[in-house]
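Query structure, 87 tokens:
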């Protein structure tokens, strides 16, 4: 998951031209509970929290997160440099 989050975040940064975009995520609740909205100060902050959640949940280790993010960033930059063309 760190790979997907990092590649998506890096792609958005490259397309938009900045990381300085506030991101809002809303989780719809069931059973009459109020929805929960979380605000991230940047695109990368959202990807970072998504990646760290896997560590907190006991699913991955820190080295998995770092390797996944490194790979995701590299893939996004390669695709952007070699296949993305302005419309």
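Result returned for the query:
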């Amino acid at each position: 998951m760190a790979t997907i989050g990092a590649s998506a975040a890096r792609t958005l940064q490259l397309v938009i031209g900045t990381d300085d975009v506030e991101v809002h995520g809303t989780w719809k609740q069931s059973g009459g509970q109020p929805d929960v909205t979380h605000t991230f100060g940047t695109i990368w902050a959202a990807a970072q929290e998504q990646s760290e959640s896997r560590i907190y949940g006991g699913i991955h280790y820190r080295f998995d997160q770092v390797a996944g993010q490194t790979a995701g960033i590299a893939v996004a930059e390669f695709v952007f440099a070699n296949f993305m063309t302005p419309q």
